[in-house]
Amino acid sequence: MCAPEVSGHAIRLEAEYGVPTVGVHADVFSRLVDSVVRVNGMPNARRAYVPTPVLNKTPDELREYVEGADPTTGRPFMDVVLDSLTRPLADDDLRGVGFDRSTPRFVEPDSEENLQLAFRRQRWTDFLPIVLPTEERVEAMLAATSRRPDEVVGRMRPTGYRELWEYTVEKVAVNAVMAGADPAYFPVILALASTGITARQSSTSSMANLVVVNGPIRNEIMMNSGLGALGPYNHANATIGRAYGLLSQNVQGGSVPGESYMGAQGNNFGYNSVTFAENEEASPWDPYHVQQGFDRDESTVTTLYVWGNNWTEGLRSTWQEKMKAMLGGQDPYLGCILVLDPIVAREFHQLGFTTKEKLIEWVHHNVRIPASRYWETFSMRNLMKEVAAQGVEPYAGYLRAGPDDLIPSFELDRINVFVVGGSSNGQWSSFNGRPLDPRFRNNPTDPVTVSIEPWR
Amino acid sequence: MTDKLRVLNPIGYAPTITARGLAPSLDALDGKTIFLVDIGWENCDVFADQLQRWFAARHPEVRTRVAKWKDQHQPDPELSDQIRTEGDAAILGVGL
Fold first, then answer.
1. Mean of all residue pLDDT scores within chain A
2. Between chains, do A21 and B5 touch, taking CB under 8 Å as contact?
3. Average pLDDT rounded to a whole number, residues A98-117
4. Where do the domains of chain B lie?
5. pLDDT tens readout for residues A21-44
6. Count of beta carbons in the 10 Å neighbourhood of residue A186
7. Sign (positive or negative) of CA dihedral A442, A445, A449, A455
8. How confident is the model at residue A140 (pLDDT cuts 50, 70, 90)?
9. A-B contacts (CB, under 8 Å)
10. Considering the entire predicted model, what is its pTM?
11. What integer pLDDT is reported at residue B2 of this predicted model?
């Protein structure tokens, strides 16, 4: 999705370069664009719309868009464009519109039934019942951390060119209560919030999150890393993930379809962000946080983005062929996250993959697809081709490759491995997913794995 | 009568929004140069090309130049400077 970017760049051209600029968008984004230009202080920004979709349309079809009507107004598209460039401006146009929005600490008191309804109507929930955040419950949550209630935890937004909203320890506690979390889980939830990585990203691709907890806190709060760890069978797994989603949509100022959420289909993983603990005790390998440079005795939480997953079973004699086919069908940009039951991890270990890194290197070197298919995938074409065009390797080399040349589907930093499960059978899955592209983090160096210890 | 509960608001703190004004409009189109900027998303180059063809056919008095934004996710100060110095207006798209 690039409608927010188009709006932001057009606004900068207007305000900072003095160039009258029309932002053109597909009409499905009209409410989102209205919202983006308003929070960028230029509600009357010049804009015009063509029908959706633009992707996969022929030149003749796009010419019809140019000669046709702006679907949001019914007026000829080019009339809208040219009128907006030449129309006399009003005082409001020249000044723009700035404003402040305050957030009251309390909601107007009401009955439990009415408050549940009010929270739902405000879109402060995931449309499942919540635990109402009374002062007593929020205070109990706050007692589980040494941090002050008014300390700022971070800033978050649903996508670039929207404003970053700020949130405190108390705001995170309110959302943790709503999710039904026990106070003992609060340091994990605070650490997640501190990443500034939203679990309500507005991408049309409908991404969700995958959250993994490592270190001693897994057992302290009785998280599940065994049988059914990825299912609805553990209070900590369930509510930590739900709290992450609720706090994201609320502290960033909303996640409203059509306005601040544009996922074409949405993602059911969003209900609890696929939250689990790694089964460090049964794994033959270093746990994920040790791979990332943390001490084994330090507790951490990691948040990755995921789109979907692909299930399979065991390492039979054809595992290499199956893995190449299975992973080779996934989108290269989105990466792959191998989530292995301990039985499968040990089978890999016995085959000589004595570290996760060796398995990651095997995937990198052996899962290859033709360059033509690599560059035709939606994400590579729209998010990496411009990087390749700037000469950044290895993508520049992949762009020079012939259409039938086989190139690695995944770079090393887009392959991740976790061990989880109760060994009732040797089953595993591959999620299409990866750490958030550094280009899209609040700061490119912000980590996706953070220590929980400072939030106790 | 049902007891009323007092609960906390879960919403974060919004930043202050600073007003930003539009650039002055063009007084006329005749003789002006309009940059048609391809933001880089799939098919946006084709759309910019069709815009250019439309101007050539319907408004030959307007000069158009197709340009490519370097990285859709980042500002492009080089191109922005070029548009300011060599152009009069811009059409940027497509937001998809």
1. 96
2. no
3. 94
4. 33-93
5. 999 999 999 999 999 999 999 999
6. 27
7. negative
8. very high
9. 290
10. 0.94
11. 66
Contacts of residue A204, Cβ cutoff 8 Å, sequence gap at least 6? A1, A262, A263, A264, B96
Residue of chain B whose alpha carbon sits nearest to that of A131 = B7
Asked whether the beta carbons of residue A97 and residue B19 sit closer than 8 angstroms, the reply is yes
Interchain proximity A20–B89, CB inside 8 Å: yes
**Contact check, Cβ <8 Å, A66/B51:** yes
Which residues of A fall within a CB distance of 8 Å from B22? 14-15, 20, 42, 44-46, 89, 93-94, 96
Predicted ipTM of the assembly? 0.95
**What band does A314 get if pLDDT is binned at 50, 70 and 90?**
confident
Q: Is the pLDDT of residue B1 over 60?
A: no
Residue B56 near residue A63 (C-beta atoms within 8 A): no
Contacts made by residues A8-12, CB under 8 angstroms, sequence distance 24+ = A8/A36, A8/A40, A8/A160, A8/A161, A9/B39, A9/B69, A9/B75, A9/B76, A9/B92, A10/A45, A10/A46, A10/A47, A10/B90, A10/B92, A11/A37, A11/A40, A11/A41, A11/A42, A11/A45, A11/B20, A12/B75, A12/B80
Using a CB-CB cut-off of 8 Å, the residues of chain A touching B12 are: 103, 156, 165-167, 171, 250-253
Q: How confident is the model at residue A333 (pLDDT cuts 50, 70, 90)?
A: very high
Shortest CA gap B90–chain A (Å): 5
What residue in B sits closest to A160 (Cα-Cα)? B73
